[in-house]
Amino acid sequence: MVRPVRRRWRWRWHGRPMDVGIMAAVLLCVAAEAANGRWCEQTEQVTEEEVVTPRREDAVPCPSVYQYSLAGWRVDRERMRQVYGGERGVPPTSTQHGAALCYIYRPAETQTVVRNRTVRACCAGWSGPRCTEAEGSLGRCHAGWQCQDAPGARNLSAVSMAECCRQPWGHSWRNSSSALCFACSHQPLTGDVPAAPRGPTARHRRPAASCIAWAGSRYRSFDGRHFSFQGECAYSLAASTDGTWTIGIAAGSPPVLHMTFGLDTVVARGHNVSVNGVVVPEGRPHLHGGISVTWIGDFVAVESGLGVRLKSDGRGMVYVTVSAELRGGTRGLCGPYNDDPTDDFLRAGGDVAPLAASFGNSWRIPDADLELSCSDAVEPGPGCAMGSAAQQAAEAVCGTLLTDPFRQCHDVVDPRGFYEACLELHCRDGGTGPSPPPAVCDTLGAYVRDCAQRRAYIEWRRPGLCERQCGPGQRYSDCVSSCPASCMAAGTAEEGHCRDDCASGCECTPGLLLERGGCIPQSSCPCLHRGHLYTPGQSIRQRCNRCTCRGGRWICTQDRCAAECAVLGGLHYVTFDRRRFSFPGACEYTLVQDFMEGTLLITAEQEACGGLQPLSCLRALSITVPGASARLHSTGEVVVDGHTVLLPFASAALSVRRASSSFLLLQTFGAHLLWGLDTPAAYITLQPAFANKVRGLCGTYNWDQRDDFATPVGDVEAGVTAFANKYRVSPECPVLSPIPFEPCSTYAPQRELAAAACAILHGAPFQPCHHLVDREPFHQLCLYDVCSCPAAKQCLCSALAAYARECAQEGAALSWRNESFCGAQCSGGQVYQECSSPCGRTCADLRLDGASSCPGLDDTCVSGCSCPQGLVLDDGGQCIAPDICPCQHSGELYPAGSKIRQGCNACVCTAGTWSCTDAPCPDAAFCPGDLVYAFGSCLRTCDSAEPNGTCAGIIDGCVCPPGTVFLDERCVPPEECPCQHNGRLYHPNDTIVRDCNTCVCRRQRWHCGTEDCAGTCVATGDPHYITFDGRAFSFLGDCEYVLVRQADGLFTVTAENVPCGTSGVTCTKSVVVELGGTVVHMLRGRDVTVNGVSVRPPKVYSGNGLTLQRAGLFLLLLSRMGLAVLWDGGTRVYVRLQPQHRGRVAGLCGNFDRDAENDLSSRQGVLEPSAELFGNSWRNLGLELPEHCDTMSCMEGCFCPEGTVLHEGSCIDPAECPCFWQGIAFPDSAAVQQGCRNCTCTAGLWRCAPTAEPCPAQPHCHDSEFACRSGGRCVPGAWLCDNEDDCGDGSDEVCAPRCAPHQHRCADGQCVPWGARCDGLSDCGDGSDERGCPPPPCTPPQFRCASGRCIPRAHVCDGELDCGFADDSDEAGEWYP
Fold first, then answer.
1. Dihedral sign for Cα atoms in the order 136, 138, 142, 144
2. From CA 1257, how far away is CA 613, in angstroms rounded?
3. For residues 402 and 1220, which has the higher predicted lDDT (pLDDT)?
4. Preceding omega of 765 cis (within 30 degrees of 0)
5. Is 1105 in contact with 1121 (CB distance < 8 Å)?
6. I need a surface site. Which of 954, 967, 982, 1350 has the fewest CB within 10 A?
7. Residue pLDDT, tens place only, 737-763
8. CA 463 to CA 471: how far, in whole Å?
């Protein structure tokens, strides 16, 4: 691995033309032009691996191979194939001499060495691909990656490239004078972030390598070697040395590509692609079993999870790209990928061929049909005769590759190999038409694509030179985006990686978006929801909000919606905030309690029921509201205020009616509930007025699942049973065990039966709802019920009915019941319906509240037997027309048409209600009598000490005096009551920690701080996710997904998942963090890369505040932007955001807005019903600072033992720690003089002896320096207003903005061009433009120290440090120009 560690500059101008034989005359103009650039030599130290012990080979008995593998030996597959034959070289089981021999080898052992290397780079003050751009050059800054202008995009004019690329949104810059476009990745980042690799450095170590085959005879290997091979057979284009994947190419027009990835086979002839024999429709993406087929521009791309990717234009241009993991592991016509082009002609036999023909023939794939066998290729001769007209025509066309606009890329991509290919192909195909032959155009296009992948974009096609036509609103590009701006991603900017894998084709012009093959303005974009397209202006409803399609995005109203809590079967609970849990408990529990105003209390009574214990069944539900209380029994009996009532019942406080044969409906102020009769279930719905006011087993109704387990005393329990125990109505109920009950684990024989029974949820009857409602939670509920089901009892139907109800609420009424399966018998003309209105379906309903029955419940579905539409059920159980329903008056029924008088008005019975005249009547006074409501005596304890608390009951016994409660056999003030949390008692003023807040026990309640806390998103293998707002879901996706993206584009975190093993579990292969122009790539088992350059943590970048550090098993990334990413290199990824990003992010981690209900928002901003639809919408279309330590949770891993600290890889005693001063490490007990005091290093800290008098003041800063506001530091005047905080207090960046960005501000305020700095001439009136400049070179033969000091040459290497304190360059033999 090569890593730059130090750079020193030696200045020398370059202008010597290249000697390339026959190309000398053609390339002379290139060398002359290069001389105009400001090029200098750069000497840098690099770290390389040197072979210490060469590779060793041996042959051993095959049974002993395992023991050798433990010692580092590996099987030599190539020799095994040569000796034993076959593709895998499998030896026989035995021979006449005993066990067969296996051939093994031990890889070479290497050591790290440091060498000097000289590379060419731009001189100081110059930039650009050809070093022709002075630092003061101005241009236009673009938010797009190819200097594109788009409506609404941010752009700046008249700025330098450096200033453009410092903008978080700045992606490309066009020079105003040369009109050339440069991508910002060419610019060094602020601080010491390594720039994207270029030139020789990029070729030395690359994150991936590509091999190209085109025109039937031209090839470029993985290591960049160009050659011609005119084979007419089938050949191995590329393959892994271990045989896990192969790519073959058969000559033809177009060529046939045969790919094998493990057990999968892909065949491509042109754009006809098949995977394992199944044809993939052209233009339609295919993803299955780790094989993906995608279409980008004119190309089709095939990729596997093995690190290899192929793309073909269907006419003969083929790219094979392999990842860095395959370095040293490839073979075939593309050569061995090892960064050494000299061995690229490695034949199948293991030797290096001198000629391309013999090399290519060795990789021929034998043909099974001998009659169709082909002959070996021969080495081709010169294409055109020397000096012929054909040669002159070829040079005229191909010479364009050596001139503008191609010339701007010459220093990034060497054009010589493409130039030679162009000459050969032009001579082969001729060129008599107005445009060059297609093979020549393919060659020029291949060069431009190589340039574009290095962020150098060239616009070269024109009439007469390979021009390509596109449809309306489109343009042709040699590097189209792999994630083009489309209506499906409207409103999101193109990301930097979208053009990393270049392909040619037509793409939409800036300002237009792709939609079904055409390009349209964003205002015409449709929206997608649940697989259906909606045109602009169309609306849908999401719960109580209306969403309108505008410009490809859903714009929704933000009304707070009612919330529902479900109790299913007495075991399963779904809170208002959609958190699910289960527990069996035979007790009465509080479901909902209004702890703010005391207007609502709902409890559920569970009883033990038969079967596999422990089990409980829902027996009754009680509700208490101001002025009334009701109790609903499982038998259908309804008791109000202690009296059994007939239905329907209505009072001033509540009403109860039969909604269908399966449900009762109870309504009260701000709430209603459905009580199941056929299956034990209760559905409680609260209006938003109760938000943040309730608690109980139904949760907190605050759109945050994380505090749904809040208890009556203010803490939040972690476990289900501890939480449920807090809401027992009576302390006499048994306390639940902390061990959760898992029936499918407890009763193993039931597991297979449950799996087979519950599989119906995945079958055809429920298929219409699969894209609307996530079925997995109900499948788990079904398994739980069936595994714990008693003998001779039907336990499957309740779970299926719960899923069917959710589907009906979403508009999918399923027909899943029949006479033999969960059947329901209806009578009196009624029919079974999955979704019918709960009100107005009987004559009794009409008598109760007329046509205005159940306001606000129009969208509520109930299942069960009810009359067909247009009919109602009469009192005898028969469906009749509403017009003949009788009316009730004074307890008697009157037939339709009857007339009575009410007061001064006449009334007629019509459709079950009295229709009365509206004449004014005299006022009347009504006296209710002398009724009095009295409270009884109550023995209040700490459990009932709060104002709205409940008592064990009215008693006639001894009670505590008013104002006291009973505790530990004595009466005490309520202030002495303890608090409870997690099964422990806490005394008053004790504290616990909740998130980032501290909770204090006061008056039996927890009072917690209200500081806004950071949010953490968790993504683990298997695969589970927990959003910032606490929403938990599972999503099995083996692709790259956006975990979190900041709305303003400040950062993006993506994770690539791949299958692990055969169980369907996925693991995280890599995590990519994009911070402005910085890309951090964390790849499993590999070094971290920053902008493609490997780094080893700990690493700190001062400019953008990026920090990388190892923390135990984890890799930690921190940023000043309030982002932290933690990855264990396998299955666990943690993303932590500071509160300033609340509501400003999106992705699989949710939107961090405290509302877990809307976390499954798709890329288009609309809620999806299932984790699968939501997850697929976010598929990617393309050292720790001390102040952060206390914000991260604990981690496992290797740490130093207690009492020791880590230093340079070892654990040492803290007393042995060195001290640091001015960047130099001093050992323990070392002494230095700091100011006028003597200081000694003790246990890593400087201990300075006090002085009798304070140290004299330091001399004032030099005229050419700036005095910082604090610390007394002096910095060069040239550092002022350079956008770097050099003082540390920001005082050097507080400047009057009186000069333009491209000008230098003199000390007297005068503005001069930036190029006037340090040019040897005094342009400022006070000469300040020449102050703080680098010192002039030393006079030969003097030696110049690293500090700039000049000393005699005789003082070098004399054993004395003559350069000054902390500068050992004179003894290290290093000199500085």
1. negative
2. 84
3. 402
4. no
5. yes
6. 954
7. 887 778 887 777 788 888 999 999 999
8. 17
Q: Residue 839 is encoded by which pair of tokens?
A: 């009100």
DSSP at 1157: G
> Are the C-beta atoms of residues 476 and 297 closer than 8 Å to each other?
no
Residue 1186's contacts (CB-CB under 8 Å, 6 or more residues apart) are none
Per residue in 156-212, pLDDT tens?
A: 777 787 778 777 667 677 777 666 677 665 443 333 333 333 333 333 345 789 999
Instruction: Report the alpha-carbon distance of residue 1090 to residue 172 in Å, rounded.
Output: 19
Please state, in angstroms and rounded to a whole number, the distance separating the CA atoms of residues 1319 and 156. Answer: 29
Task: State the DSSP code for 651.
Answer: -
Q: Element (H or E) spanning 725, and its range?
A: helix 720-725
Amino acid identity at 477: S
The burial of 179, by beta-carbon neighbours within 10 Å (0-12 exposed, 13-18 middle, 19 or more buried), is given as exposed
* DSSP secondary structure letters along 1069-1109: EEEEEEETTEEEEEETTS-EEETTEEE-SSEEETTTTEEEE
Task: For residues 973 and 942, give the distance between their C-alpha atoms in angstroms, rounded to a whole number.
Answer: 10
Bridge partner residues of 992 (DSSP)? 999
Distance CA 693, CA 1331 (A): 68
Residues 6+ apart with CB under 8 A from 1074: 495, 496, 1051, 1052, 1053, 1054, 1080
E-only strand ranges, 324-420: 330-331
CB atoms within 10 A of CB 1237: 13
Side chain identity, residue 1193: S
Q: Enter the tokens of residue 31.
A: 């060398």
Name the one residue in this structure whose structure tokens are 């993803």.
287
DSSP state of 612: S
Contact yes or no for 27/33 (Cβ under 8 A): no
DSSP-derived letter for residue 22 is G
Strands, E assignment, 645-698: 649-650, 654-658, 663-668, 671-676, 681-686, 694-695
Residue whose structure tokens are 């009532």: 645
Least confident interval from 216-230, 261-275, 772-786, 1168-1182: 1168-1182
Q: What is the pLDDT of residue 33?
A: 44
Q: Kindly indicate the confidence band of residue 40, based on its pLDDT and cuts at 50, 70 and 90.
A: confident
Nearest CA-CA partner of 698 in 572, 598, 612, 815: 572
Secondary structure of 162-229 as H, E, C letters: HHHHHCCCCCEEEECCCCCEEEHHHCCCCCCCCCCCCHHHHHHCCCEEEEEEECCCEEECCCCCEEEC
CA distance 100 to 64: 11
Output phi, psi for 437, to 5 deg.
Answer: -60, 155
Residue 836, Cβ neighbours under 10 Å: how many? 22
Identity of residue 1219: C
List of residues 6+ apart from 386 with CB closer than 8 A: none
- pLDDT band at 372; cut points 50, 70, 90: low
Instruction: Report in angstroms the alpha-carbon separations of 442 from 218, 360, 396, 399, 408.
Output: 11, 22, 17, 15, 19
Q: Which two tokens stand for residue 54?
A: 């060469």
Mean per-residue pLDDT of the chain? 80
CA distances from 719 to 582, 724, 736 (A): 11, 9, 11
Alpha carbons 892 and 894: distance in angstroms, whole number: 7
Structure tokens at 1169: 């019903």
Sorted by sequence, the CB contacts under 8 Å of residue 821 that are 6+ apart come out as: none
Q: Is the dihedral of CA 411, 412, 417, 421 positive or negative?
A: negative
Residue showing tokens 């028969």: 878
The SS3 call for residue 1276 is: strand
Interval 253-268: pLDDT, tens: 889 999 999 888 999 9
Report the DSSP beta bridge partners of residue 728.
589
Residue (of 881, 919, 917) closest to 899 by Cα position:
917
DSSP H or E run through 26: helix 24-36
Q: Greater confidence, 1283 or 778?
A: 778
The model's pTM is: 0.62
